[in-house]
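Can't paste images in this forum, so I'm doing it all in text. The chain is below; anyone willing to post the predicted structure tokens underneath?
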Amino acid sequence: MRAMAERGYEKASIQAIAAAAGLTAGLVHYHFGSKQEVLLALVDRLGALLRSRFEQRLAEAESPWARLDAFIDAHLALDSTSDTDAVACWVTIGAEALRQPEVAAAYRVAVKTQLEQLEGLVRDVLVGEGRSRSAAQRIAAGLLSAIQGAYQLGVVAQATPPGYAAETTRLMARGLIAAEELG
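Text version of the structure:
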């Protein structure tokens, strides 16, 4: 993950990946047939890291709003469990999804899973607020776009203030949900 985050896919050689992991290149080749297989394994690894962050926050969330905030914070909050290499690696995976069909397929599955989970959380808030559920998918897509955009801006453009993303996305969620009709 560190090698992909620091160098990008093209420049992260198997030797660089092995060195970052404290392994020999031969051992990396033993477990992975190609650099692409390493990248595909990272999709699963990053998903597991994100699920862990979400589950930690979800354990303390007692309301639909708190569960939605937990999802947003798991993706964007800066704290002791934040991993900038993971975010940079996810941006690398997104870029490679444009070039490699196998990576695109794995990326689509991961994003679809996140979107479905987020849609359920948004729907629960809409119901709890007595609002129409019909916009849950649209609102979830907008929030996930904000999350993914924050990753891009933070890693590639490096033009955003530190720590802005979670708070801003939570505020966006509140505004989008408040704009929906009462059911």
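The chain has a mean pLDDT of 94. Residues 34-178 form a domain with the Tetracycline Repressor; domain 2 fold (CATH 1.10.357.10).
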